[in-house]
Specification:
7 strands; two-stranded antiparallel ribbon; 4 domains; 27 helices; mainly alpha; globular
């Protein structure tokens, strides 16, 4: 922001202070009150002009704009240096490829850096306006304590300053600062008239004071001091309580001072107490856990009605026509970052959800303008996978693989598919039990990068489930050797997806019956996320139960209690984090955000679709515990919640048949086996189902 503009506004503030000083002594002067009111209106207009002037943005130092200039300058230098190569040495195809690559990099760099430049410029403007607003807020309350006296010389100084400013504006030397349209001249004229009136009033006051009235103390005791009071009048506010000139501690775009935020939080807490009893926790956080719409607060924002909402509850709210503005959802004014920090301290699992939802929304926005970016589709697919939105993840990764194989002119199957897209898609397909499709992607990945830990772990899982324990152990040994030698493949995400590698290794160890190693890898995978990933933690809990069962014949009550508590906690995290507004059944909520990002919603028994794999884990644990009824209920609920891309359900039907047999329901078991045969995808699977059916005599 222009320092000159700020200096001009600061001079205006000093003029207002001087006029207020004069007004404090001569409160009987009605003409001066009119001048003050007129000047106040002019100052407000000037501040609005300051906010609206886009040319002010050019006065600030903007590193992003400088970086864009350097990029294009370097591109020009490269073109000049390679002019001969482009014209005569390189082939037309080589030259076109290099120019296309240069153009793509320039376009991407320009788009990203320009957004940063605009954002930085807006931050500068908002910070300057916030300073001006905060400075002016205290002037009315500071009127009687800060200013004590006023003299004729002070008024003359004001006139001289206004004259100089008016002349500067008239001559065009003010660089866009100050008043225009004769505002300064009008104030000067009023002040000159006021001086004559002042002399008469002063004589009258002196006569009155000498004859009748005692001398009054010019400093009333009821005047409230403000933070920037002079030393002679100590302030009752501490620096920790109110720092009006200090920007928000969390986000630069906040236009609110700390005192204003504290007042808003206080009023909102009072409103929340009237609505429902507040929640308490050891972190000292006392507030209502849901917003006025009934949504769980994950990303708190301050709305235009003065209350605190969850950001996604307002973003996903149903739009209302303009003629029904009274029922329209409130607008988002800013973030309540202090409350969000306390939320994350009290509920750590919401921190990762907040990051994932923010990433998902930003990736979706960028993909509106870069729909052919393979890397962005892979990244959004992995975010969807972590949110357990398997359908959306598979859709993104399918598109990423397809785009990576296209040529420059759109030819199909021109290049090899992208390794990162293939390995991520194999992970999703493995969890969807589409082993043939997953194995095809795995082999394609290992043909290009033979030391990919994730692909080797997924292949070991498939081999172990198919009964090839030797091949599975060989793949696991290869992963161990690659990790120890430091030669394991790293994707474009670096270490950000290493937790998925250990998750795959845990599955592989489970497939060969080594539940102790599986629990170790699952635990390490969960610990790599901050906070711990609920699905990996649930896998670890089930692996610990299976380990004790395979070692001792049955799991102890202590282990069952501890691990079932972990499974319940994981489901609680998923259920609480994804729970939509309680009013969602009454109003139609958009299924996607404006950017195209999906809206998370619960569809069955209060559980979202993302709880599908974790419910299966809890069902398995309940079966080990001997609670066949609850295990059957969990598996049935998981089947109703399963994503549409889950095609192989015959194994789940067989498990349900065995649970029904354990409960004495032979007719129900027969029905489940019939459904399993109908859903079987291959001859080998059908033979296994028939064998199990004959074994149980159904």
């Amino acid at each position: 922001m222009s320092f000159g503009a700020l200096a001009a506004v600061g001079a205006c503030v000093q003029i207002v202070k001087t006029l207020y000083e004069y007004h404090n002594v001569h409160t009987r002067n009605k003409a001066l009150l009119d001048i003050l009111e007129s000047f106040s209106q002019n100052l407000e207009i000037s501040i609005e002009r300051l906010q609206a002037r886009e040319q002010m943005l050019g006065f600030a130092q903007n590193d992003a704009l400088d970086s864009i200039e350097r990029d294009f300058r370097k591109a020009k230098e490269w073109l000049q240096a390679n002019d001969k190569n482009l014209r005569s040495i390189w082939t037309a195809l080589q030259a076109s490829d290099k120019l296309k690559d240069l153009d793509d990099r320039l376009c991407k760099a320009f788009a990203s850096k320009m957004s940063v430049a605009i954002f930085s410029a807006l931050q500068d403007t908002r910070a300057g306006v916030a300073r001006i607003e905060t400075t002016l807020e205290g002037l009315p309350t500071n009127l009687e304590t800060v200013c004590r006296t006023s003299t004729k010389e002070a008024i003359h100084e004001v006139i001289d300053e206004l004259k100089a400013e008016a002349y500067a504006v008239g001559s065009g030397a003010a660089d866009g600062k100050g008043f225009s349209n004769g505002e300064a001249e009008k104030i000067i004229s009023q002040l000159v008239d006021q001086l004559a009136e002042q002399e008469r009033l002063k004589e009258d006051e002196e006569l009155l004071l000498m004859s009748t009235y005692p001398i009054l103390d010019p400093a009333p005791s009821h005047a409230a001091p403000v933070p920037y009071a002079p030393v002679s009048a100590p302030s009752q506010y501490s620096a920790d309580q109110d720092a009006p000139f200090e920007p928000s501690a969390s986000r630069q775009s906040s236009t609110f001072s700390r005192r204003r935020s504290q007042m808003t939080l206080t009023s909102t807490a009072m409103t929340s107490e009237a609505m429902s009893p507040p929640g308490e926790n050891p972190t000292g956080l006392v507030f209502d856990l849901v917003d006025p719409t009934g949504a769980e607060i994950v990303d708190p924002v301050l709305a235009s009605d003065g209350l605190i909402y969850d950001r996604w509850a307002l973003v996903n709210a149903k739009p209302v026509p303009d003629d029904d503005a009274a029922k329209s959802p409130p607008r988002i004014l800013g973030e309540v970052t202090e409350l969000r920090d306390k939320l994350f301290a009290a509920f750590p699992n919401r921190k990762q959800l907040y990051r994932s939802m923010l990433l998902l929304d930003r990736f979706s926005h960028i993909l509106l303008f870069e729909p052919n970016s393979v890397s962005l589709h892979v990244r959004r697919g992995l975010v969807n996978y972590r949110l357990r939105l398997l359908d959306d993840a598979l859709r993104d990764l399918d598109l990423a693989v397809h785009l990576s194989k296209r040529g420059l002119s759109g030819e199909k199957d021109k290049h090899k598919p992208d390794v990162d897209a293939l390995r991520a898609r194999a992970l999703v397909l493995e969890e969807l039990h589409r082993n043939k499709d997953a194995l095809r992607d795995i082999e394609a990945v290992l043909a290009q990068v033979p030391r990919d830990v994730l692909a080797l772990s997924l292949r070991a899982t498939i081999r172990g489930n198919d009964g090839d324990a030797t091949g599975a152990l060989a793949d696991l040994a290869t992963t161990n050797a690659a990790v120890r030698a430091g030669k394991a493949y790293r994707s474009r995400l670096g270490d950000d997806d290493s937790d998925l590698e250990y998750l795959g290794r845990g599955w592989a160890y489970c497939s060969v019956g080594d539940f102790a190693s599986a629990a170790t890898d699952f635990g390490y995978s969960a610990s790599l996320r901050d906070p711990a990933d609920p699905y990996a933690a649930a896998c670890q809990a089930l692996a610990l139960i299976k380990q004790e069962e395979s070692k001792l014949g049955s799991a102890s009550s202590t282990t069952l209690e501890t691990c079932l508590a972990q499974l319940e906690a994981s489901l609680g995290v998923i259920r609480t984090a994804m729970m939509p507004s309680s009013a969602a059944s009454e109003v139609d909520v958009l299924q996607t955000l404006p950017s195209g990002a999906p809206v998370l919603s619960a569809i069955e028994a209060g559980f979202p679709v993302t709880a599908y794999p974790t419910l299966l884990l809890r069902g398995s644990a309940k079966a080990v515990q001997g609670d066949a009824e609850q295990a059957l209920a969990d598996i049935e609920l998981a089947l109703r919640l399963r994503p549409s891309s889950v095609r192989e359900v015959s194994s789940l039907r067989c498990a349900m048949a065995e649970l029904r047999l354990a409960g004495g329901n032979r007719e129900g078991a027969q029905h489940e086996y019939d459904l399993a045969l109908a859903a079987a995808g291959g001859v080998g699977v059908r033979a296994a189902i028939l064998s199990a059916r004959e074994q149980h005599g159904v």
